[in-house]
Amino acid sequence: METHEASESGGGGTPVMSTGPKKRGRKPKNKDESQTPSSQQQSSAGRMKEGGGKKSHQPSADEKYSQWKALVPVLYDWLPHPNLVWPSLSCRWGPQLEQATYKNRQRLYLSEQTDGSVPNTLVIANCEVVKPRVAAAEHISQFNEEARSPFVKKYKTIIHPGEVNRIRELPQNSKIVATHTDSPDVLIWDVETQPNRHAVLGAANSRPDLILTGHQDNAEFALAMCPTEPFVLSGGKDKSVVLWSIQDHITTVATDSKSAGSIIKQTGQGNDKAEGPSVGPRGIYQGHEDTVEDVAFCPSSAQEFCSVGDDSCLILWDARTGTSPVMKVEKAHDADLHCVDWNPHDNNLILTGSADNTVRLFDRRNLTSNGVGSPIYKFEGHKAAVLCVQWSPGKSSVFGSSAEDGLLNIWDYDKVGKKSENGAKGPAGLFFQHAGHRDKVVDFHWNASDPWTIVSVSDDCETTGGGGTLQIWRMSDLIYRPEDEVLAELEKFKSHVLSCASKP
């Protein structure tokens, strides 16, 4: 097992704990200052409930993990487990590079949040994505979290100016990524033309290809790239939503020429200030009364987008009508909103996740001009704050949610209200729970090239004294395929199972 390097440099302590009040997970500020008493009580009550009323809920977390591990061969089609030396706060799939008979090669983008003994980095890795029903049975049955997976190999390292809190790729060209750090700027990188750097103490920062300016305070988490145009959207502590166009700066990226592949021609490897070409905003949108935590574009329009924040508001915007909100849902949740996602298959459906432990589904046709809007449905299954929500690229009614309870839940809105034939009880719409992480799942991403394959990262420093956990996983197709189809397939094996069972 590759051990955490922090134990050598941090006096035996976990890396972040030894360097002062760095945030754990994705909290951009001290929640004790920002949460209302009711949401604090909810959070602590959730922790007490999870721990069965004991002083520490760690034993029950380990117990749940052991139960999950025993079920891995039944639940999963594929589950490589590449360990991380450092925690990662964000993970994204990049472009597919190569297709083969049994597996496809694809880029994977990760961050490394270090303790300061080495620089923070943006990591570009190559991942061998094994196709469904190809993974060897013994690979699944011998799952071992101690092992380092051969499926993920580091390809390139970019020395990032500050922590990488969020990574987003440009849909029109996923070799172009944007990153958020602890500053007001958004950094744009052409990961293919950036030089590979060795992350050693004192090394100069890599130079961004483009810097997007416009925020007046730190913009740490709210970041989105537009599906239809090369637009970037951001939110921050200045309570603003900022929109940029990088159209003029990516004209050469589409060419395959090695001499004309970058957004902006490099003039050197840069310096500690990460100076580089910059571009100002197209618009700055004011309407929130607290930190903007997440933003999302309407999938079919570069002019329409939404945002959520610590003021419990969901706001819809339209750049064509000015910089004021088009629609403002004042009390979308009972606490801070952490995340939002717009359905790529249905422009009317918007998901939100909150510190009140719920995921809510809104239909923008049901929202009125005076800010009144009830969710179509509240999904209640998490026992702690929801940190990330994302619709599946493969099925319009399916989405995932990850939370501080260490769970990544997969839901199907179409299953809400339908009775299960086997009488199973559980939160409505919940049909799969990934319990392979033992601490807060800070980010995850569905693979558009292989829609039921997910990459997820958790911040495990406080739990294990180690780094972070990166997991790439695909549930068994017997779980999500139509029931009649699955039963028909299983019927073929019925006689064989019965004959085996009848043998002494």
Helix percent band: 10-25%
Question: If you compute it from the alpha carbons, what radius of gyration comes out, rounded to the nearest whole angstrom?
Answer: 23 Å
Number of strands: 29
For the biggest sheet, the summary is: 5 strands, mixed
**Residue windows where pLDDT falls under 50 for at least 5 positions:** 1-59, 251-274
Task: Please state the structural category.
Answer: alpha+beta
Mean pLDDT: 81
Overall geometry: globular
Percent strand: 25-35%
Distance between the termini: 42 Å
Explain how this protein is built.
The protein has 504 residues and is of the alpha+beta class. It is 14% helix and 34% strand. The protein has eight helices and 29 strands. It has a five-stranded mixed β-sheet, with no helix packed on it. A four-stranded antiparallel β-sheet has the order 1-29-28-27. The protein is globular, with a radius of gyration of 23 Å. Mean pLDDT is 81; it is low at 1-59 and 251-274.
Key structural traits:
504 residues; four-stranded antiparallel β-sheet; single chain
Q: What does this entry show, briefly?
A:
By secondary structure, the chain is an alpha+beta fold. Helices cover 14% and strands 34% of the residues. The longest helix is centred in the C-terminal third of the chain and has 20 residues.
